[in-house]
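Two quick folds needed for the group meeting slides. Do the first one here.
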Amino acid sequence: MNLGDVIRQVQRLFGDSFEVQIEVGDIKDWANEAIMQVVRQAETAQAEFQATYGPTTDGVTLPTQFIGEKRVTFDGVPLERVTINELDDIGVLPSDIAGSPCKFYVWGDKIYLWPLPATSVTNGLKVWYVQAPARIDDPNVPLPLPVVFHMDVVRMCMVRARELNEDYEQARVLKQEVDANLGAVRHDQENRMRETFPVVRDDPADWWG
């Protein structure tokens, strides 16, 4: 489904194909708002970036379309996210691991490592993150979402259309349908994470007794 399909379906469902009450520009705004909401909740758009980080680095600016990180590593080692207040409670690291970043925090539009690395590592910082989609206005551009969410975009546009028409009960029903679908997706994601168990294998040392 492309943006034009969304516009056509919303106009037909609302019964306003000639933009008497709802303009095409309104539907484009609603569709982009809906796409952003789906991406934020279902985390369907993902990206990654790398950056050099050294002992004098004053944080690294995050990508403009950054929503939230999923994984952060330095020189291949996963880092733990903390807040600035939590760092105050940590104190000084033992000397044997000082200079090896083990934590990170986000402040403003930058990501910082703690403690600072002893030496600079080219592209040592790697961030996997959820990425905000770019706005689309061309009707021929496909929706930047998996097919399972396409009708949710139509429904979310219809929620706005019904609210504009002061049909709040129908808007509520449509919103419940969308929330149920996104909730089911989050449930599936959480279950897949919980159902991933390490495989327990025989100890080769036990083969020779």
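Then this one, please, same format:
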Amino acid sequence: MADKFLGSLVGGGGGLIGDVKPLNVDDVDGLAEIDDQSWLKSGVVSTAIALYPDAKKGTGFYTGISFEVDDQEANPSSIDWDGTHLWVLGTDEDKMWKYTEAGTYTGTNFSVQSQESGPTGLTWDGTHWWIVGSANKTAYKYTATGTYTGTSFSVSSQLSLPKDIAWDGTNFWVVGSNSDAVFKYTATGTYTGVSFSTAQQDSIPEGLTSDGTSLWVAGNITDTVYQYTLAGVYTGTSFYNRNADSVTTGIAWTGTNFWVVGNQTNKAYKFTGENTFVGSVDEEEEYSLPVYVRIK
């Protein structure tokens, strides 16, 4: 990153929006105003993005909010959102558990054990739940209240270890950690012949969710979430599961935020949504002076 540093190690700002450099300035909560410029100290972000329309927007900043699922499930494997509540799936109890958006357990759960003894992924298609697992390598359809509908489709021809499933509004996608790839299925469960590899970004993909226009894959090796187009092209956008679980197993998109769940701490962690902050998440320590990024 050193090649991005411009100007003197002391004094004022200068340069273009997005420039990064050490500054010897006074600031208020990490924000330095120099003439008509705004500089934000590295490691500090601002969610007041409307004030900085020309600054590069970031995705996936940890909000500091989390909740435990350990009292219900000792091995959470996936998480998803039904429009009003978060649901966590686990392989210890082979159940789905319902939580409020604030992380309070509602007392509602249902078992999937009769269909799948190793449930690893879940997704909500707007009216029904779909569960995929490693034991039978099959996706099973349930009503909103947890009744198995008798409908399922196999993914065994494509994946030996399916980890998660996502619905993009038209098609299903299933990710596998042995194949290091994501596979596309029609709404009726027919494999389309379309897939893409995640190996270049992470060789053990665990979690998968869709925001309707793209796919987000959570990797277990890098502890990072990567964005792909629905054509399977990595967009270059990602975020690190900072302060979250180092054994990521699932990710959910609520329409405004991401939730990431892991089975080391058995917690769900809340991250900001797409393009929701400006500034640099990582605090630069290469120089003796604080490092700032120009946001206005």
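Slide caption for protein two: The chain has two domains: 2-50+277-294, 62-272.
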